[in-house]
Structure to design on (492 residues):
C-alpha cells in the first residue's frame, strides 16, 4: 500500500505538483524522516527543507515532524495557514 | 452546528437569524465577518508597534484549502468551543477561490443564553481557525502574486485560550 | 458611527453590510444581537455557579428608557471605544417598548482593520451599555409584571475594562 | 428657576409619577440631600430611601449621591439599569 503525499500553497508551487504516491523505505517512519528522504532525493524537493515553519498533517490531522508515518497514510506538507 | 466551505457568498442576516430561530432560550448571538482588504498584509508586530507596508494595493485574493482536512479541522474547533462554553448553536462558513477587496471571506456566528459565552466562543473559533484550519491566501497586486505570510499576532491570539 | 433608539426592528444583514461599505481597509466586522429570552431572568451568580429560576415563562418584555440621556450615554460609550481601539465604524441600535420572546432588543456592530480590535470594542460597548445606558426591562409572566433586577455579572463584565 | 426631578422604572411606579418640579431649599445642594429632602417630606417619596442601589443622573449624566445640584438642573432617580 503506497503513501500519498500532498503539497499546498507556496510549497505546492515550489515543488511543482500537488500530490504523488511513493512506497516508504523501511527507515522512513516519521514525517520528518519523509521530508528529509524527499529533499535528499532530488533538487525538486529541496523546498521541503527550505520552507521556514513547514507544517504537516497525517491523515488530515495537523502533526509535528516527529509524528509516525506508515504505509497507506495521507501525508501533507504546507506553509503556516493563513485563512480567516 | 453547521460548517460550510464554499465558493459562493452567504447571507449574513439570514445566518444570524437562523442561529436563534425556534429557540427562545437564546439571549445572545455574537458573530464575525472577515473581509478581503485592499492593503498589503505584510504587517509585522515589532515590539507591539505595527509597521504596515501599504504600498502594494491588492486587486484580488485566491483562497486555497485542503479538502477534507478543512472540514475536519473546523469541526474540531467547533467541538472544542462547545465543550468549553454553554452554547446553543454555532455556524462557520469559509469561502474558497478568488475574491475581490470588500468581499466576505469568513463568517462565524455563535448563539448562547448569555453574551459572555457567545463572545468568547466566537473569538476562540476565529483565533483557532486562523492558526489551525488549512486555508492559504494568495494576493494579486499590480506587480504579481504572492502568498500571504502567517502573522505572529495570530499565534499569540490563539495561545491566549490554552 | 450611528446610534439609534427606536421601537421598530432592524435589519441585521443590512447593518453589518453598511458598517464596511465603501471602505476597503476594513477586514473585520464583529457584531452582537441581543434577544428577548422566554426564561425568567432572576439568575444569580453564587460562587461562580449559576442557579436559574426558570419557573416563570416570560410572555413579553417592555423596555423603558430615559429619552435624551440614553442617546448621550450611548454616544459616550461609543466615543470611549473609538479612543481605545483602532476602529473604522460603530453602529448601536437599541429598541424600546413592548417586545416578545425571540425578538431582537439590541445590535452592536464594529468594523476595524483587524479582528482583535473589532471583538474587544464590540464586547466593551455591550458591557458598558448594560451598566451605563438608562434602559429598564419589565417582564410579563402569567402571574403579572416584574422589573428585572440588575445582574452582578454585568458589573463584573464592565469592570474588566477599567 | 425650578429643578425638574424624574423617576424611572420600578421607582417611577413606586412614587406614582414620572416627573415633577420643585424649588430647591438652600441647604439641598447635592443629589443625596435632595433624596433625603423628598423622602422626609412625604410617605409618597419613601421609595427613594427604600430602593437598594438607587442611581441618579444630573443633567443626563450618571453621578453619585455626592454630586452637586443647583436650581435649574434636571435630576433623575432610578434603579440600576437593565438594558441590552
Amino acid at each position: 500500500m503506497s503513501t500519498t503525499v500532498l503539497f499546498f500553497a507556496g510549497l505546492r508551487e515550489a515543488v511543482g505538483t500537488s500530490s504523488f504516491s511513493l512506497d516508504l523505505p523501511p527507515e522512513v517512519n516519521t514525517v520528518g524522516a519523509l521530508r528529509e528522504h524527499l529533499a535528499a532525493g532530488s533538487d525538486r524537493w529541496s523546498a521541503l527543507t527550505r520552507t521556514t515553519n513547514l507544517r504537516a498533517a497525517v491523515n488530515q490531522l495537523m502533526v509535528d515532524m516527529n509524528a509516525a508515518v506508515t504505509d497507506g497514510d495521507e501525508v501533507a506538507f504546507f506553509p503556516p495557514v493563513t485563512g480567516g | 452546528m453547521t460548517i460550510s466551505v464554499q465558493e459562493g457568498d452567504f447571507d449574513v442576516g439570514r445566518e444570524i437569524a437562523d442561529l436563534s430561530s425556534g429557540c427562545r432560550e437564546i439571549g445572545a448571538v455574537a458573530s464575525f465577518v472577515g473581509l478581503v482588504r485592499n492593503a498589503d498584509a505584510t504587517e509585522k508586530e515589532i515590539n507591539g508597534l505595527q509597521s504596515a507596508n501599504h504600498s502594494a494595493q491588492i486587486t484580488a485574493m485566491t483562497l486555497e484549502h485542503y479538502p477534507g482536512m478543512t472540514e475536519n479541522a473546523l469541526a474540531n474547533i467547533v467541538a472544542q468551543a462547545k465543550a468549553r462554553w454553554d452554547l446553543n448553536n454555532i455556524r462557520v462558513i469559509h469561502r474558497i477561490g478568488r475574491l475581490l477587496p470588500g468581499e466576505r471571506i469568513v463568517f462565524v456566528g455563535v448563539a448562547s443564553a448569555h453574551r459572555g459565552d457567545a463572545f468568547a466562543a466566537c473569538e476562540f473559533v476565529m483565533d483557532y481557525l486562523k492558526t489551525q484550519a488549512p486555508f492559504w491566501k494568495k494576493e494579486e497586486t499590480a506587480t504579481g502574486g504572492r502568498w500571504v505570510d502567517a502573522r505572529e499576532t495570530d499565534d499569540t491570539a490563539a495561545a491566549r485560550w490554552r
In short: The domain at 2-36+63-137 of chain C is CATH 3.90.1170.40 (Aldehyde Oxidoreductase; domain 3). Helices of chain C lie at 12-20, 69-84, 115-132, 152-159. The radius of gyration of chain C is 16 Å.
